[in-house]
Structures are given as C-alpha cells and as structure tokens.
Amino acid sequence: MKRLLLLYITSIMLFACEQETVTIGNYNQKALEVGRSTQNYDSAIYYATQNLKLTQSAADHYFSYYIIASSHEKQQAYQKAAVNYVNSLQNLPEGSQHDELRYQLLYNIGLICKRYANYDLAINYYKQASNYVSDKNKIWLYYNLGNAYKEKENIEEAAYMYSESLRLSLLAEKEIEQAKAYNQIGLLYSSLEDYDKARSQYLTIINNDRNTSELYQKYKGYALHNMGSSYLYEKNYNKAVEYFLKASKLNRPDKEQFVTYFDLGKCYEAKGELSLAVDYYRKACELFPATEPNREFLKVHHRLGEVAFQLKRYEESHLAAGRYFAETDDFLAVKEQQLALFSSTNMQSAVDNVILTYRKVRQIKEYKYQLIGGGIALVLLLVFLIRFTIRNIRLKQRNHKLETVQQQVMDVLME
Known about the structure:
Blueprint lengths: L1 H37 L2 H14 L3 H17 L3 H14 L7 H17 L3 H11 L9 H13 L3 H17 L3 H17 L3 H12 L7 H20 L3 H12 L5 H18 L2 H14 L7 H16 L3 H15 L3 H12 L3 H16 L4 H48 L1
C-alpha cells in the first residue's frame, strides 16, 4: 500500500514538473496566441506576467514586457502601455538584430507621449527611433514629427517634416500617405492665410480619381472639406458651399459629417438663406449624440435656436436652445429659450420654464452666476407679465370694438 501511495505521489510530482517546464517555455507564445486569435488581452497580460515571474533571462523579459504593453495599448490603457514599452526597451539586448523592435518601441512611446500632449518628449523619442530605421521606412515617422511640431506651433519644422513624409511617399508610390501629407501641408498654408497654396495641395488629392479605396475616399473627404473651409475663411460662401456639399456626399464618419453640416449651416446663414441654414444645423444636431459632447459641438444647438427664432419657428428654437443650456449652463441661451416660448402661444410652458431656469440657477455654487441667472429669470418673468398684460388689454379692446359693432348693427335693425 505504501509503495502504491509513493508511486502515486511521484507520478503527480513528475507531471507537475513536466507541466511547469512546458508552461515556462510557452507562456509568451500562449500570450501571443490568445491576444491575436481571441483578442483576450487580459489573458495575454496574465501569461506574459507569469513568464516574467518564472524566468530570469532579460532576453525573455523584453518580449514579455512588449506583449504586456501592446495588450494595454489595445485596451486603451496608454499610460500602462508606455511604462511597459520602456521596460521592454531597457531589457532589450544590444545588437543590430534588434533594431526593428527598438525602433517600434521608441516610436510607440512617442505616439503615447503625443496622445498626452507631451510634444517635446514625443519628438525626442521619434528622433531616437529614426536612428534604427532606413529612410524609405520613415514616412510615418516624419509625418508624426510634423504633427508634434504643428501642435507646438513650430510651422517651419512641421512643414519640413510633412514635406519629407510626402517626398518618401511619392518615391514609394503610396497614395494614402501622400494624401495625408498633402492635407497637412495645406492646413499649414491655411494657418498662414495663404489659401491659394493651401487649395493647390487639396486639389492634388481631389483630382486623383484612380484610387477608389474607402481609405483614400476618407482623405479626399478631408480635402474637400478643407477646400470649403478655405473659401469660408475668405467669405466666398458660394464656393464654400460647393465643396462642403461634395464632402457631405461621401461616406464619412458622423463626427466629420457633423462638422461639414455645421459649416454648411454657417454659410447659408451668412448668405441669408435661413431655411437652408436651419436644415443643415438640424442635420448636424441629429448626428450630435454620436459625437463627443464638448462645448464646440453644442454650439450648433445655439445657432439652430437663433436662426429658428428669426424664422418664427419658436418651438424648434426653444428645444435647440434648451439642449444647449442643459449641457453648458450657458445663460446666453436662456433668453433665447424663454423668448421662443413667450413668442409662442404656450404661455403655461413659458412660466414653467422660467421657474425651472431659476431652480437650476440656484443649484450652481458660484454666487455671481446665481445673481446673473436669477436676474435673467426675473427679467424674463417681467417680460412675460408685460406681454400678458398687453395681450389682455388688446383682447379687451377687441371685445369692446366687437360689442360696439354689434350695438350699431342692432340699432340699424331696430330702425
């Protein structure tokens, strides 16, 4: 019995040792498999972390850190990704055979630095990365260097980097990369108010009918919109509308289509074609829930409210201004929102909204805003009372005239 028990324990230990040996040798491979095939990045991180715990070799560690970093990046945990990319870089053995991975690590760290608006650090990592890659593979490196310098408002360096990216993409006959560079160079010219040179860059993309791929059409959409913007800056609204309409007909993401519709609304408003302005502001508003709810995007509701009010579309004006006010606590929208209701026949809703506005204002902690908001609410209530009084006076005058006419008719009939 003892011999059987000893044999059983020995077999378990041998099995465990065999499993451990196999596991140590394959943790990184297993991490790659689950990451690529099932996109289970938590499992990939787990297996790569186990490999770090079970091995002492720096050669194994750099790859484990790389797997962990790329998995975090896929999960959009960028700060964790950056830390592990740096760890991978520190454990990467010397030698030219690792130059490709060294370049990728430095480049990825640079991208994350740029994401967090640390442009100086991003430029530093990009420039380090340039030492480990051939010139023909520097298209994206130069492009991102251009982006970083552009954000730092160093137009000269940005122009140089974009031009280098364009030169290399022309040599490599890569049209997508060319389109990205042309657009950025055009935007630089626009920032300098040299709109003719900017448009020459955009037209290079627009006039290319050979490439019908979905990705190229995306950048053609950018170019068409940028053309329209250049004319909008010059207040040439007819030409701006022409290019904005062309851009709007392409299959584009909601956020980009939103901006085009908003700009079309601005053009038609400036031209005095208010009905069309409302149509495009409304289209932009319909795309709004799919975009990021920031203050700039909410402005379209403000514009819709103002233009709809001018057209005496009071209910639409009220709803648009109300959405803007609800999201921003902007008291400039309150007057428009309430006046829209005062101008309509819905007096009860007007009173309710004045009370609601006043209650909302009281929730805001800043004393000056309480005063402003409370003052606006009281003014609006006063406007309502004046309008209500005038309405009653007019109603009484009308009734008096009606009674007078009726009496005159009765007198005539009696005679």
